[in-house]
Write a structure and sequence with these properties.
Layout: H1 21-31, H2 38-50, E1 52-55, H3 63-74, E2 88-91, H4 96-103, E3 109-114, H5 124-136, E4 141-145, H6 148-152, H7 156-170, E5 174-178, H8 187-200, E6 204-206, H9 218-235, E7 240-242, H10 250-263, E8 276-278, H11 281-294
Parallel strand pairs: 1-2, 1-8, 2-3, 3-4, 4-5, 5-6, 6-7
Amino acid sequence: MASAGSLTMLPDFSLSPRIDQVGAEERAARFTKRSIKKESKLNGLKLVLNMIDLTTLEGKDTDGKVKQLCYKAMHPHDAMPGLPAVAAICVYPSMVKVAKKALGDSGIKVASVATAFPSGQASRDVKLRDTKYAVQEGADEVDMVISRGKFHAGEYNFVFDEIAAIKEVCGEARLKVILETGELGTFDKVRRASDIAMHAGADFIKTSTGKIQPAATMPVTLVMLEAIRDFYYKTGKMIGMKPAGGISKSKLALHYLVMVKEVLGEAWLNNHWFRFGASSLANDVLMQIVKEKTGVYQAANYFSVD
């Protein structure tokens, strides 16, 4: 793999595969037609719960809110013990230490956004210091946003170099690279941004910051999954996937799992390789699990509001 300083060795990212948008949308729609039986549905719902990055990324975040979210992560629904915990808590760098302490030895990861999230509009030095701070505070994972303006200007080597530099200062922390697909405009650009991120060292590629619409969609996620598949065939390296934003219903999340299984295979069907970036999905999943186990829906106010 090329290093950030050896640009002559880089692939020509302008030659990333062209994507048939109509075909991608039709293929994605087919995954929503799969029938999921009761036992498989319950197992799928538990898997979805275990893949969620519970997220709070607001200017009004407080220590108390983060601690409450961490409790929810470890105890999704006190009335139903034995449920799987979520995968991670995602917070701003200033809240990493609070989350790390609250989660203790639960095994739940702490993910921190960085690199001037959500705009990405800062100098590389600022982005590197932002990332270093998050890691020093104890972040297990870093969610960075690409330099969106540079990408739109066609400065692909700049985008590559920056991702590679951030990856280097992450150390042992895994790096999720946010493409902000809702503003890329075409599936061709989604594929190109995915290729750049993976070649630069991303451990995950992620659709969105959740701050603009549209956020994650099934067709866009399909394009990214196919990029991951092709990268794996070429390099033997597995890359994770994180659709984020706009996934609030269990039924839709299950459709995503079907798509992951059919495009990438069962090896990706765990929270080491697949995540949902969501804040409201967890409660809908919990409501559906209760319905599957008891046959009765509980009202939304039986679940904690996050």
